[in-house]
Structure formats: structure tokens, C-alpha cells
Design goal:
14 helices, Farnesyl Diphosphate Synthase, mainly alpha, globular
Length: about 300
């Protein structure tokens, strides 16, 4: 019979399978223990996102985030001890995974802080403000992941942060229309002004030259973070490399598709098909596991 902890991890896997989309294929490349830990982290982040994006009032959402903070503290105090019945399954699994891999609780607290900021902060004056937001909702998740992946070089943390920035900036470009409909504009205000494009234009879906130049500027910044974050892969154990490589490649491909479309993000949501994700996963998983064959000397 499955233990309560087993059932908690099963719940987290079900959440990942149902909602993770681009992430789930990458998660599957990890060894079992690491994969379960990543499922738990994903389920926690998904819970926070669902609260922020739900239909409750802001006051009700604040109360829910306070409840999540309390559950996080309560579950972490229990560590890897058998789950308590009054703790939801994602918290039981998260506590067990965090104890096993030494994941600091402050990382989860920063995720909550970033997601909760969406309740009131819907504009960003400059990239530094946006970068702080992206750090809390994406880069911190990367820091959680590398604790599970394993690393020896402290520089891995900076590259995980950069990868999170690249992926979140890609999300922002892809979801411009959807976010504007929720009165959330993540493109920095000073850059909107720099390119002569207004919030009103964005909400109206105006795709003129100013918009394309503005988006190209955002895409170039994201590409810089993709390039610098590639250094992370060689700092990880071989068994862990495919997961971040797949995520990196998938999101970079989405960015390329956005660019190739001429930044046509108003008429459709740009992404990858299931078959494309599977091909990326298979190629990079195999490439990460196969030993490198040295070239013969002449």
C-alpha cells in the first residue's frame, strides 16, 4: 500500500502532468528521486500562480497567500517526518524534497513574494524593476532546481538566475495580449516611451513598426540571457543536464518563433507542438547521456 508521502508525490506528479506543458517533458529526463522533488516544487509554484490568477478578491487572495506561508512554515518544521494529515499533499512532498536536497525555505518565500506582487503591481518603470519581478517568479525557481540537480561551482547560481530571466522574458513577449487584457503590462514604461509606443496602443493590439522595434529590443535582451546561461549545463552532473537543456531549448525556440512571426503575438499564442517538444527532449536527453567520443589525433 502506498504511503501518505507516496500519495503526496503522486499528487504533485498529476499537477505537473496536467499543467506543466513545456516543463513536463523536461522533468521526465531526471532520475526518479530528483524528478519527484521537481514535481513537488512545480506543484507549489502552480498553487501560488493559481491563487494570483484566480477570481477571488485581492483581500481574499492575500489571506490565501498568508495561509500558504503558514503551511510552508508548518511543513518545513516537520521536515522529512511522515506527512501530517492537516498539511496539503504538495506541502508534504515539498518538505520531504527540501530536506533531502537542502533547499532553503527562503527560496519558496521569494516565489510567494513575487507572485503576490501581481496583485497590486501591474506596471514597471524600468528593466531593473522588471528584473526583480522576474527573479522572484522565475530565477528563484531555477535556484530551487539546481539544488535538486546538484552542482559544485557557485557560479551555477548566477547562470540559473540568467536562465530564469530568459524564460520569463520570453513568457512576457508571448503573453503580451493576454496580460494587457488583465491590465498587466510587463514591458518597462521607459522603454515604451523610448520606442514611441503607448499602453493604449498595446491594449488595442496595434502592431506597427514602433511595436516591432520595441519587441525586438526585448527579444535581444532575452537572447543575451539565453547565451550566458548556457554555461550552467557543464556545471551540473551528467544525469541532470538534459532537464535544463530541454527547457532552455524549448523556450529559446518559442522566442525564435515569435521573432520569425514578425512579433505577431496579438493574433495567436505562439508555442511549440507536442511533437516538437518530444523531439527536443529526445535529442537533448540522448545527447546528454551519450559519452563524448574524442576526435582522433592526426
Amino acid at each position: 500500500m502506498a504511503s501518505q508521502l507516496d500519495l503526496a508525490y503522486d499528487h504533485c506528479q498529476s499537477v505537473a502532468r496536467e499543467h506543466a506543458k513545456n516543463f513536463y517533458f523536461a522533468f521526465r529526463t531526471l532520475p526518479s528521486k530528483k524528478r519527484l522533488a521537481i514535481y513537488a516544487a512545480y506543484a507549489f509554484c502552480r498553487l501560488c500562480d493559481d491563487v494570483a490568477d484566480g477570481s477571488m478578491s485581492i483581500d481574499e487572495k492575500r489571506k490565501e497567500f498568508a495561509r500558504i506561508r503558514g503551511l510552508l512554515t508548518q511543513s518545513m518544521e516537520s521536515g522529512s517526518v511522515a506527512p501530517q494529515r492537516d498539511i496539503p499533499p504538495e506541502f508534504s512532498a515539498l518538505a520531504d524534497a527540501s530536506a533531502a536536497f537542502g533547499i532553503p525555505i527562503r527560496y519558496y518565500e521569494e516565489v510567494i513574494e513575487g507572485v503576490e506582487s501581481d496583485l497590486v503591481k501591474t506596471r514597471f518603470e524600468n528593466f531593473e524593476e522588471l528584473r526583480t519581478y522576474c527573479y522572484n517568479v522565475a530565477s528563484v525557481v531555477g535556484l530551487i532546481c539546481i539544488e535538486v540537480f546538484g552542482y559544485d561551482d557557485e557560479a551555477a547560481k548566477q547562470h540559473a538566475i540568467e536562465m530564469g530571466l530568459a524564460m520569463q522574458l520570453t513568457n512576457i513577449l508571448r503573453d503580451v495580449k493576454e496580460d494587457a487584457g488583465l491590465d498587466r503590462i510587463y514591458i518597462p514604461r521607459d522603454e515604451l516611451a523610448q520606442f514611441g509606443y503607448s499602453e493604449e496602443d498595446l491594449k488595442a493590439g496595434v502592431a506597427n513598426d514602433a511595436f516591432r522595434e520595441l519587441m525586438a529590443h526585448q527579444a535581444e535582451r532575452a537572447r543575451g540571457f539565453y547565451d550566458s546561461s548556457e554555461r550552467l549545463f557543464g556545471m551540473l552532473p551528467v544525469e541532470s543536464r538534459a532537464c535544463p537543456k530541454v527547457l532552455h531549448a524549448a523556450y529559446k525556440a518559442i522566442l525564435g518563433r515569435i521573432e520569425d512571426s514578425g512579433f505577431d503575438v496579438f493574433s495567436r499564442r505562439i508555442g511549440l507542438s507536442t511533437s516538437e517538444k518530444l523531439l527536443i527532449t529526445a535529442r537533448l536527453w540522448a545527447g546528454s547521456l551519450l559519452p563524448r567520443v574524442p576526435l582522433p589525433r592526426r
